[in-house]
Specification:
This protein has 7 helices and no strands. The radius of gyration is 30 Å and the shape is elongated. Helices cover 62% and strands 0% of the residues. It has one domain. Helix 1 crosses helix 2 and helix 2 packs across helix 3.
């Protein structure tokens, strides 16, 4: 494949969240090997990404925004491919920047993922504390026998 010197990959592998390069190579595999249209390849890639991020239990953007990000990655490649015969400094710089960006994480996390993560951790910790602490009501043991006797003799109020 032009500009990358790598073949498209049939799957996104690894124990970490996928990089932009892995996502792009998976998209190109769907697009060139399976001969899917660009929108179908974008959809297949976004479904795969949602599954991976779901395993990490991280909240993600909406499907439309994920598809838009994958589509923008592909359109950036097409723009560079269109100008591949240019030898200008600007064209070379754009290619280097695009190649450098491929190493970054393909981030589809929602904007408040860190806040939600903190809230979930706090609720888990507080529920854990609640489970560990057994509520003890000391007042029945401290009641005087006289007061208990009066309480037993009271009749319930009925209308």
């Amino acid at each position: 494949m032009w500009l990358l010197d790598k073949a498209p990959e049939p799957d996104i592998l690894g124990a970490r969240l996928p990089s932009r390069e892995q996502v792009f190579l998976f998209f190109m595999y769907q697009h060139h090997v399976f001969k899917k249209t660009a929108p179908d390849s974008v959809s297949a890639t976004s479904e795969k990404l949602k599954a991976i991020w779901g395993k990490a239990k991280l909240t993600t953007k909406t499907d439309a925004n994920i598809r838009k990000n994958v589509k923008n990655l592909f359109e950036g490649y097409l723009a560079l491919k269109k100008d591949r015969n240019r030898i200008t400094d600007g064209a070379e710089l754009k290619r280097k920047i695009w190649n450098g960006d491929l190493e970054d994480l393909f981030d589809i996390s929602s904007a408040d993922v860190l806040e939600r993560r903190d809230i979930l951790d706090e609720t888990k910790a507080s529920s854990f504390r609640r489970e560990k602490i057994v509520p003890v009501h000391p007042w029945p043991a401290l009641m005087s026998p006289k007061w208990r006797k009066k309480r037993r003799k009271r009749k319930p109020l009925r209308s």
